[in-house]
Structure of CFA46 protein:
Amino acid sequence: QKILEKYHNLFALHWEGVVGNTCAPSQAEWEQLLTKCSAFLFYGMERFMSHVLLNWLVAMNIPKCHLVILLDLVRSQQSYQRITNSDTHKSCLGIALERPTETAMLLSLTGVGSIIATQWYTSLEENAERLETLFENLLSFGKTTGQTIHVLQK
């Protein structure tokens, strides 16, 4: 929340979405957010694709979304229990398609221009640092996504 407030004035038009942990967005809300945005940020627990339906995502066409930032792959005991329960109802192939590389490929096939995503499990604090670096470089300094990724890699 602090990072969003800090960079709020640098957003081109407006910021819309779901903030907090009081409720999870429905599939219709995910679809509305992804199809209306030019950039999409997911900062949350476990795999992004564990929150959306695979069949729903692959059927989408979202070419207006130029950038997706996935700061996911954070695990807590509660999120691990949720994902374990959810995974019991999925095929091995379905679970495999939720991995970072496969998620990036699926988003690319739906029309997303660029995808920035974590590749291994991390902490909320580390993702907060990544978000701060992303916003600082993309919004404050006006760097490209490629230049920003190089900063994150250092």
Summary: The mean pLDDT is 89. The first strand starts at residue 39 and ends at 45. Helices lie at 2-7, 27-36, 54-58, 77-87, 92-96, 100-109, 124-140, 145-153.
